[in-house]
Amino acid sequence: MRLSRFHLRTTKETPADAELVSHRLMLRAGMIRKLASGLYTWSPLGLRVLRKVEAIVREEMDRAGAVEMQMPTIQPRELWQESGRWEKFGDQLLKIKDRKEAEYCYSPTAEEAVTDFARQELSSYKQLPVNFYQIQTKFRDEIRPRFGVMRAREFLMKDAYSFHITNEDLVREYRNMHAAYSRVFSRLGLDFRAVQADSGAIGGDASQEFHVLADSGEDAIAFSTGSDYAANVETAQAAAPGPRPAAGEDMRKVATPTQKTCEEVAALLGIALQRTVKSVALMTDDGFVLALVRGDHMVNEIKLAKVPGLADYRLASEAEIAEYLGSEPGFLGPLNAIKPIRVVADRDVAAMADFVVGANERGFHIAGVNWARDLPEPDRVADIRNVVEGERAQDGGQIRIVRGIEVGHVFQLGRKYSESMQFTVLDENGKAAVPAMGCYGIGISRIVAAAIEQNHDDNGIIWPEPMAPWTVAICTINPKGDAAVNDAAQQLFDELQAAGIDAVMDDRGLRPGPMFADIELIGIPHRIVVSERGLAAGAFEYRARRAENAENLSREQLLARLAG
Amino acid sequence: MRLSRFHLRTTKETPADAELVSHRLMLRAGMIRKLASGLYTWSPLGLRVLRKVEAIVREEMDRAGAVEMQMPTIQPRELWQESGRWEKFGDQLLKIKDRKEAEYCYSPTAEEAVTDFARQELSSYKQLPVNFYQIQTKFRDEIRPRFGVMRAREFLMKDAYSFHITNEDLVREYRNMHAAYSRVFSRLGLDFRAVQADSGAIGGDASQEFHVLADSGEDAIAFSTGSDYAANVETAQAAAPGPRPAAGEDMRKVATPTQKTCEEVAALLGIALQRTVKSVALMTDDGFVLALVRGDHMVNEIKLAKVPGLADYRLASEAEIAEYLGSEPGFLGPLNAIKPIRVVADRDVAAMADFVVGANERGFHIAGVNWARDLPEPDRVADIRNVVEGERAQDGGQIRIVRGIEVGHVFQLGRKYSESMQFTVLDENGKAAVPAMGCYGIGISRIVAAAIEQNHDDNGIIWPEPMAPWTVAICTINPKGDAAVNDAAQQLFDELQAAGIDAVMDDRGLRPGPMFADIELIGIPHRIVVSERGLAAGAFEYRARRAENAENLSREQLLARLAG
Predict the structure, then answer these.
(1) How far is B46 from chain A (nearest CA, A)?
(2) Domains in chain B: how many in total?
(3) Domain that holds residue B318
(4) Residues B552 and B530: beta-carbon distance below 8 Å
(5) Residue of A33, A39, A47 with shortest CB distance to B120
(6) Hey, which end of chain B has fewer CB within 10 Å, N or C?
(7) Which residues cross the membrane (chains A, B) (predicted)?
(8) CB-CB neighbours of A237 under 10 Å
(9) B68–A35 CB contact, under 8 Å
(10) Which residues does chain A have within 8 Å of residue B127's beta carbon, measured at their own beta carbons?
(11) Is the peptide bond before B243 cis (omega within 30 degrees of 0)?
(12) What ipTM, to 2 d.p.?
């Protein structure tokens, strides 16, 4: 490809509403242009990247045994009513009336359409398992479209749906898709994590998200340095603590006249924050509960709600606190309650000795507290806190917390759609069986933006090679005036092409400064300069996109470097 | 590919509303399934064909220098109002309101969106010419969707739009696209014609349609056996006739008491129909006109309206005929008018001698009529008739009339959109210039149906090789019970793959009858049978889809045949 025959238009300015670096860089590189709110045209440059991502996704889906098909973007209301989602999906569902006033939606996802296809196509267990996928435009009517293609309304998605006779077979395919997704993101050259999104529904981890790691990511992810374990911070499990030390101090009441937070109390007493205990007052249908976490930890509301008896918990009011503990917030603790309470302790708290709690008396805390000696063992011990950066993970590694952008999702759906849409096949015994389903999505257009969030510098995008619009740029100096430069560039281009390297020749005739700035901005991994001076010296100037400096290489060195 | 790992589901029955053979065969082969009126899911089998067509279109567009990009399917009302098409497009335009009550449409074509993109991207003549194309889903809200994907509401289209400083450059690109389209349809292996759709607007033939020829086609097309000339029957030009023979008969009045049509008069007189002349009475703002065509010809209304003075013509009433000719229909002619009339003669009529016309008197015609001798030369001579099958064409060939399905269109748009949307670039002199535009469409999904209309028999589809889901089917007899058969089939499959031949192995374990029926129905061009008996004899049974009988070939013969 010669850039003079392509269409490239870079710009310096970006609109004020482009908050994310990927949005700004995609606009500056001319990869996308806005047509309307949340609607983007992909320029020739942008589409090259999108298609490279699409091709890798397709190859790995095919390799994993899924079969590609394609469903309409416009889908009838009746189908969405069968599943109940016509009403439940909410305002993100773009509803449409045709000339005959029949109602449709623009597909934001296609469980209904694929189940309808499946019930027309599949009638026997012999046809199962099968995994249908499509790479198709989707629409979600976001209330606040922003961040460019990161949260556009119209976007490109790969969605796959598998059908199984048994739950075990669904779990097998779920793992197969998990492996395929890992290959996709590895091949794309992205730093990613598969993150536990939920648990338990059907088989093991019934739902996992794939995140591209980037500081600008919307989600906080905890992962361990010791294994593949990763989870949203909200669901990440803390490691079990070691055994409880023996009591070493006497229990004593200490005056904390204005010290209400654990930090203030620890500072006053001159002890580590880790020796204090935070008390959170809750009400449930079964009465008052005091949840205890270490002073340096945060209560995790999702974990709390999973503790038996706390499913319906809410925070206690000041009146309720006064009624049960006879105290006011800031001085609460498990000792000296005036009415019966239950105590739920985080596992770390249950393993503490000689700790500090509120005295249930304004202006006082109690130090040197020990379980069993000074108060009964907790009514229940559970993991009820957020994990923190640097702590020991269950697998012996360390917990790291990073931010991620969700680009994929694998999900054991079960029989929600097949049941509501009355899809059955005959099983081995000739009886009607409702197939189990899995669904597996990848946000193709979103990957493009996420990759930029992860890979850029002040000069522009730094594409991982498999996603780059071209792997190599051959920059020609004065190509119109200098036939030797043009010939040498063409020869090099032909050699690269013969070696299967996707190169572009910048023959636009720009001066070196603007030309190099363009090539850096659009993120080409390798830059070669062909100039009169270089040819005279028998050298090509080469620079990797991430390298500090250029170097002069002979043709052989250059080809060896690029082939490597 | 092994069919056991694919998803294939053929059926015997088709719905009553499937009128076209392509619709029936696509349903029977399981290529498509209906989701709703005019909305079809492409099964894995159907999508393979669609993607093969798409790939060939993309390759030829790229080769022709067009650059691919992609516009949203959902486009804002404001843009369509700029061109005036929001109101003018009619009910085929699917209009949509989003959650904020803003109005959009589902793109049926993208002149507005591409012009908006161009005016953001292009500012100088140096960036022109450029030809942007996309392969993207379109929607037209047909009032009566039918014929399967032939006239679906949602369909796949390749649409291209070029921009030029001069009309000459537009004409150059128009010809370039015309050539690219010819390559596309040739490579697809289809019998097609480029048909003149209109003429004159900007450069030469300003608009041409590409038709796949098939008996079921909606349009009648006239083409010449002597050149590339082809046109819709309504616009096809008749060849100029030879010189007028000398008069040989005396003029005489003949009694035709009940004979009103040329056929009846010719039969009564015992002469060839070609010696009679049909008179058609017209009124215009400038008075009465008698249009004359030969008795065996049909007046062409479109050509008639192009004759100077006839732009506003209508058929004359019986009262007007009585007023000007003093006669009643069935006996009209150019002689003996009672008020002044103009005579417009088809070129063939002007070249006749000794012909028969109505006498303008009930029950009589006049025979042996000759121009100049018996009546003045016609006021105007023009081509005002439909061409007919078998006549001599302008280029010396013969006219053939066939039916066609429109699958492509190239069009010199001119400045309609760039002007209404105020798109200018700076020309060489630094002045604002409004670029000329061309647009070029190919109906990708429609091509699939059109190819079937052209290529099928009682047993099913007969794919041209470049469009076939697979080129070769290897049918294995008892593959589960016979390891030798399975191994031999796998080895053959590997050899074909190594030779770049797209093969599928039918390892579903069906009995030969149903298996062969499936393979014929889905139209695979080459079928090979691997069986125990064949292996014992050292032969493979081979049959081309169009062949009457199978033949036994050795491995070497088989590979040579398929490579040929």
Answers:
(1) 8
(2) 3
(3) 252-382
(4) no
(5) A33
(6) C
(7) none
(8) 17
(9) no
(10) 7, 9
(11) no
(12) 0.87
